[in-house]
Amino acid sequence: MDKEERKTINQGQEDEMEIYGYNLSRWKIAIVSLGVICTGGFLLLLLYWMPEWRVKATCIRAAIKDCEVVLLRTTDEFRVWFCAKIRLLSLETHPFLSPKSTANKVSNGHAVHLIENPAEENRHELSKYPQTQLQQIRYFTHHSVKYFWNDTIHNFDFLKGLDEGVSCTSIYEKHSAGLTKGMHAYRKLLYGVNEITVKVPSVFKLLIKEVLNPFYIFQLFSVILWCTDEYYYYALAIVIMSIVSIVSSLYSIRKQYVMLHDMVAAHSTVRVSVCRVNEEIEEIFSTDLVPGDIMVIPLNGTIMPCDAVLINGTCIVNESMLTGESVPVTKTNLPNPSVDIKGMGDELYNPETHKRHTLFCGTTVIQTRFYTGELVKAVVVRTGFSTSKGQLVRSILYPKPTDFKLYRDAYLFLLCLVAVAGIGFVYTIINSILNEVEVGVIIIESLDIITITVPPALPAAMTAGIVYAQRRLKKIGIFCISPQRINICGQLNLVCFDKTGTLTEDGLDLWGIQRVENAQFLLPEENVCNAMLVKSQFVACMATCHSLTKIGGVLSGDPLDLKMFEAIGWILEEATEEETALHNRIMPTVVRPPKQLLPESIPTGNQEMELFELPAVYEIGIVRQFPFSSALQRMSVVARVLGDKKMDAYMKGAPEIIASLCKPETVPVDFEKVLEDFTKQGFRVIALAHRKLESKLTWHKVQNISRDTIENNMDFMGLIIMQNKLKQETPAVLEDLHKANIRTVMVTGDNMLTAVSVARDCGMILPQDKVIIAEALPPKDGKVAKINWHYADSLTQCSNSSAINSEAIPIKLVHESLEDLQVTRYHFAMNGKSFSVILEHFQDLVPKLMLHGTVYARMAPDQKTQLVEALQNVDYFVGMCGDGANDCGALKRAHGGISLSELEASVASPFTSKTPSISCVPNLIREGRAALITSFCVFKFMALYSIIQYFSVTLLYSILSNLGDFQFLFIDLAIILVVVFTMSLNPAWKELVAQRPPSGLISGALLFSVLSQIIICIGFQSLGFFWVKQQPWYEMWHPHSDACNTTRSLRWNSSHPYNETELDEHNIQNYENTTVFFISSFQYLIVAIAFSKGKPFRQPCYKNYFFVVSVIILYVFVLFIMLHPVASIDQVLQIVCVPYQWRVTMLIIVLVNAFVSITVENFFLDMVLWKVVFNRDKQGEYRFGTTQPPQASVDRWGKCCLSWALRCRKKIPKAKYMYLAQELLVDPEWPPKPQTTTEAKALVKENGSCQIITIT
């Protein structure tokens, strides 16, 4: 086998990885060991940080089949490396398996079909190796998943359960009998213990992992260096800071582990009953369950310890942990295709497709309905981390790295500081050699310059802003589980909203019904609860076609079903356990109208007669239920009226779907028009249908019939019209987002026209805006895929124009600010089916549609995720706001996902709002922007602090001096830490503005800001340093120097009791040092004020009281010790006496420095460069056909001049969507004209390209 082989595991999945094989090499290990000793352990640290280097340095390449170590690399944009050790699973200790059986199962690596009978063994005979070679299986574990060697595919593959490659037929035929104890033991050996273990690491383990962080290693190096240079106080301060940082970090990490452990431990170990092959019921621990076990669901319910598919009975389940909906869901047994009339034996079981028959791990079974003598049984399909809950926990334990420009730029910036430190390092060595300094001092001082340039407090300072933002979000009821995402939320420029429960009220009110008789609509009726309709099929459908159940005597279920059932006023009765036990079949749920609605044919006084008239009582039993499926957009039931021979089938769902399954002659001619009228008004419309079933259909046959057999050839009965009101705050929030140039998009499972109507009502689509509906049709009968373009409604027509002409086509716009609202804009709307067709056949149209797509209706959960990805592909920063139901995938995929559900499903979403209102969206963006700007401010300040101190030390090194220990301490602790942690406290600005903050540090404005301040600070520091030498009183300082006498100030000198024997070894005390110390101390405070930006993203810095007070105290203190020296302070800080005139001169230097710094930062940079030269690419940057205010024309003039002078502006925008918008401006065919069709060209020639053909 080729030793350089590279294979891929998890191909096509999210966690796809490349895999390489390696064997340990003794000579390489010996060389590395020697290197570790020579480098004092640093090489070991480097190899600990870099798995790829570690494996390559100690191993040699080998064939994957025979390797001892595997090296893994993710195939996504992050290309992260991992390594894992190959382990062996021995099977020699299991004599109950025949050699042949063992050989087959082991060589197969993962038993997809979990072989258990000879016929299947023969079919899966995949290896001819002797038995002795097959006693051990090779595997490795990565991210809690075991990967076994599979000889069939010559690669490692994870062990699958019954969730892949198993047909529904085989679940009944091969897996419904249970396992033998021997087979159970064998599978347990392979699958391991059924538990989702979140091990809480010991404090010691966490401590070692935290301490070995490169940053803390650098700090350790700095502390050792400072101790050798006798900077004990500063070293001690840094050690204390590091300990506080490590302890707080350990506390928060351990707290998260404990929280996750507690959440997962809910079902860790329970006792469960399983059926064995001989019908024997055995009680085992849930940790011993394996795929293929038959689990008996207890009557009083349980928390599911695994994923299992129901094969007997019905369960009521609370799935809030997974979906975010606390509404109980009815789970029915998996249809058995072998006894089905149509026979769909080839259908493969899939937990997602068959989720209405699957009990998921972690969900709560509230109650069961069962057959007498036949328990409610489920076949275990997945265990441990393979389950749905296990996958959710894995995504939390091993999250994808957050890719954000700010963090990438931060590393680049650090590299730049390291480069600057390198220059200082070389300069110090050369300068010291030229001045014949001792070798030991040269080493210490040159290394010291590196510790000065890369500030040890940087990471703590960077996270301060995020921590404060997280606290402020918590105060307004927004909880965050991924703090790093707060910064990313500051960049959001598009937000997708779910409709029901997010933009509109969660509940629906019944507005009325519109029945159909003789294929004609009757007039709408408001009151359904009346004696006239009580025995009609329409009301019978409303009474039976739902998934309601009684829990604790209270009706519960889908809110829509509840509203419908409450509207008719019927009573629902479910069989008790005792009643069920008396019959040899499952007792149906019975619904009946209240007595007052039924026509009374018997005298009311004769109570006894009433008992004998029981058959006349009108009751309907629900015999079989086909639950609502979002993929099918409908649900149906089979019911029987008490006393009737024939059963009835009732169906309800999306009107378009229901009408297509009805006899055409029963659907009114004006069906589409009536439906359109209702949906345009924003009503939610549900259609009902009915048909009588054949008398030959017995109760048992109905239990096994497929829904396709039932759901066709129906009679259309009419429409139920539900009103879904907008939430009170929705229009105002959307208006705020539009003002801030943040696009809003609606993603809903509702009807297209209803969604468009709601979009207009809430202001997402303005009254004068055009809506273009893209109706895409897949290829059919040899014809290519095509898109029909319809205009949903035209502008107010002029009296003389009867048709839409070319003038009515909307003007193309990119700018979305308020000043352009008078120009007609256009929006695309499409449904889920069209979206899928466009994604598959019109790839080049997708980005164009993303630019103006506003309404996406009838979207399935996976389509919502695909939409978020498509928007991200054109460089939008996408936010997603949903109520948790069906939105989990999109919430996780978006840059900022906000769940309005407080349930455990919010674990999948980075943010959760306590109040179910979209007002959390602008709040989150405001806080994100504030946190982002705070991060920039802090980073710029820390960069300036490093450079100022670096330059101070470099200047002093030139005269073989340095800053004193307490000078460093005062600067780093009293000034820097206090300023950094208080400047981060600025709250967010009270409203969203149209301007957006930059996304990275490497942007023109920010670089100019930092560089200009560096030049100013270096300039004024140099001025002080060289000017002091020109003073008439200047001399090389010594303990008897008396410069103060030149200003008749004898007091200072006499108060200093210097000991003549006390020598200043480091030459700290001199006039240059004192000058540089005072000027630099003020410079730190000056840049702190210059960089502490307020409006438009944060509150002004004068409202940050802690910062203001801190800065004032520091200013007063430094000013006081400069102008009015205090002997004890000067002695501690090693400051020397300088004439009062020079003190005033330093004050003037500082004041001029402050004026220049603040003028350049706040006026020149903000008012000229930020707006003119470095105006970032954002939606709304280009203006067309609008009148500009006077200031805009000045800006335009300035822009032209500066762009010409500096040549630093590119015409092509960075963001793809902006570039695309520019292209579309000159495209005469865009937007598509009304009543035109776009057809896909043959895929052979041009993949996904299309042409527009106008249909006349």
What are the SSEs and their pairings?
Elements lengths: L6 E3 L7 E8 L1 H13 L3 H8 L1 H8 E3 L7 E6 L6 E5 L1 E4 L8 H10 L9 H6 L12 E7 L2 E6 L4 E4 L9 H6 L7 H11 L11 H9 L2 H15 L3 H33 L6 E5 L5 E5 L8 E3 L5 E2 L3 E6 L1 E5 L1 H4 L5 E3 L26 E2 L4 E6 L7 E6 L5 H10 L7 H30 L4 H15 L4 H18 L2 E3 L3 H6 L4 E4 L1 H5 L5 E9 L2 E2 L15 H8 L4 E3 L2 E3 L2 H10 L2 E3 L3 H6 L6 E4 L14 H6 L7 E10 L4 E8 L6 E6 L1 H6 L10 H10 L2 E10 L6 H6 L2 H4 L4 E9 L6 H10 L3 E5 L4 H10 L8 E8 L8 E6 L34 E6 H10 L4 H7 E5 L3 H13 L4 E5 L5 H6 L2 E4 L11 E3 L6 H38 L7 H19 L20 H26 L21 H4 L16 H21 L13 H19 L3 H7 L6 H33 L17 H17 ...
Parallel strand pairs: 21-33, 21-38, 33-37, 34-36, 36-37, 38-39, 39-40
Antiparallel strand pairs: 1-2, 2-3, 2-4, 4-5, 6-7, 7-8, 8-9, 10-11, 10-12, 12-19, 13-18, 14-17, 14-19, 15-16, 15-18, 20-40, 22-23, 22-32, 24-25, 26-27, 27-28, 28-29, 29-30, 30-31, 31-32, 34-35, 35-41, 41-42
Helix pairs in contact: 2-3, 8-10, 9-10, 9-14, 10-33, 13-14, 13-32, 15-32, 23-27, 29-41, 32-34, 32-36, 33-36, 33-37, 34-36, 34-39, 36-37, 36-39
